[in-house]
Design brief:
Layout: H1 21-24, H2 26-30, E1 36-37, H3 49-60, H4 72-85, E2 94-97, H5 100-111, E3 117-120, H6 127-133, E4 138-141, E5 145-147, E6 150-152, H7 155-163, E7 167-173, H8 185-198, E8 201-205, E9 232-236, E10 250-253, H9 257-269, H10 277-289, H11 291-315, E11 320-322, E12 329-333, H12 341-352, E13 354-355, E14 357-358, E15 369-373, H13 378-395
Parallel strand pairs: 1-13, 3-4, 3-7, 7-8, 8-9
Antiparallel strand pairs: 2-10, 5-6, 9-10, 11-12, 12-15, 14-15
Bound molecules: pyridoxal-5'-phosphate.
Pyridoxal-5'-phosphate binds at residues 41, 99-101, 125, 173, 177, 205, 207, 237, 239, 245, 250.
Length: 396
């Protein structure tokens, strides 16, 4: 990984006044305008120049009406998945979609029946619970276990849940938000073998798969089997990687014709058959021309993760930090100070004045925890940590 200074991630860019959910909704979200926001998963960094230029160039033409789907986007997706993840995919496996969460929801509808169990591994990305519940399926928990400073899958419990014929799907987060694990090939193989054994389909949310730190390697779940795992649906997007989530574009990779057909039928039924013009162009530009920017971003983010760990260990030693192996999110355990989640929230929002994601939203296992977003200027991260340190000193 290169540490070049070609891209300046330290440069501060004011986001207030741009309709940013992270920065412009502080009163709504936290009830306090003064919090420094390090919560929702987007970044305080400018997109690669090539992405901004492609969007601006198209925006120059003042008609943004119905567009056709140029074939070039498929080639960009195929090349990216091959280059970054070593996985050969075919055009016909790909379904273009507005976002990963709606795609997960539609896939649940397509591949299970009301009342069926869908397994999740909390603490986990909150919409996973909603996608299951809102579609009248049953949330079945296979909680992760914290061991030696990192989270692991409880395979004994997972096997029990998979063995129950009422449970039809595993909704898998890889890499895992919020605990930051990049699952190893061995772990993935175990999950694969168990799902094979009990004939459970896997919905593998790999939206964070481009955000991997040194010493770790992402393996696409579906690529584990030869030639490919037909029981797995993969969800990907350039939205987290290149900070273009507002452009609403993602893609599903479904190698199995029957399962792909079932998902497609739900898109048809709901008449979701167009893609955001700018989302497609931005993704294409990012995947074709954004790789050097991404390498530089990863270097910067990893230094932020190191900064966080160092600060917490030296200046907030009773707080426990899980260093992310991937994703720009980190999981903090405040239970040495707060067992009551409401007290922790009041402390963070009104005493420390930092806006983090409350741990309890990631499942009951998150009580006493918070998620911090590292994708900001290092100075902002340090300011947030200093605020937490000062507020902790005041309660000791
Ligand atoms: C695991 C995971 N899946 C999906 C999403 C959001 O996907 P989308 O905005 O495409 O619906 C996020 C955003 O934070 C995420 O962390």
């Amino acid at each position: 990984m290169t540490g070049n200074k070609l891209f300046d991630f330290d440069k501060s860019i004011t986001r207030q006044g741009t309709g940013s959910r992270k920065w412009d909704a502080l009163q709504d979200v936290f009830g306090n305008e003064e919090v420094l926001p390090l919560w929702i998963a987007d970044m305080d960094f400018a997109v690669p120049d090539a992405v901004a230029a492609r969007v601006a160039e198209r925006a120059e033409h003042p008609i943004y009406a119905y567009n056709i789907q140029e074939d070039t986007i498929y080639q960009s997706l195929i090349n990216w998945v091959k280059r970054r993840h070593g996985w050969d995919i075919e055009k016909e496996w790909i379904l273009l979609a507005p976002g990963v969460v709606p795609s997960i929801s539609l896939s649940i509808l397509a591949l299970s029946e009301p009342g069926d169990g869908v397994i999740v591994q909390p603490p986990v990305y909150p919409p996973f619970f909603a996608c299951i519940k809102d579609n009248e399926r049953k949330i079945v928990e296979n909680p992760l276990i914290s061991k030696d400073g990192r989270y692991e899958i409880d395979f004994t419990d997972l096997e029990e849940k998979l063995a129950d014929p009422a449970n039809k799907l595993l909704l898998f987060c890889s890499p895992h938000n919020p605990v930051g694990r990049v699952w190893t090939k061995e772990e993935l193989t175990k999950v694969y073998e168990l799902c094979q054994k009990y004939n459970v389909d896997v919905l593998s949310d790999e939206i964070h798969s481009d955000l991997i730190y040194s010493g770790h390697k992402h393996t696409v779940f579906a690529s584990l089997g030869k030639p490919v795992i037909k029981q797995s649906i993969t969800f990907m997007a350039a939205s987290k990687t290149f900070n273009i989530a507002g452009l609403n574009f993602s893609f599903i990779i479904a190698p199995c014709k029957r399962r792909r057909g079932a998902i497609k039928a739900w898109f048809t039924r709901l008449h979701i058959n167009r893609n955001n013009l700018f989302g497609v162009l931005a993704t294409e530009a990012a995947y074709n021309e954004g790789e050097a920017w991404l390498e530089s971003l990863l270097y910067y983010l990893e230094q932020n993760a190191d900064t966080l760990v160092d600060f917490v260990q030296t200046r907030l030693p009773k707080v426990k930090v899980y260093k992310p192996e991937g994703t720009y999110l980190a999981w903090l355990d405040f239970r040495a100070y707060f067992t009551d989640t409401a007290e922790l929230e009041t402390f963070l929002i009104h005493k420390a004045k930092v806006g983090l994601n409350a741990g309890k939203t990631f499942g009951a296992q998150g009580a006493g925890f918070a998620r911090i977003n590292l994708a900001t200027q290092r100075s902002v991260l340090l300011e947030a940590l200093a605020r937490i340190e000062k507020a902790i000193q005041a309660i000791q």
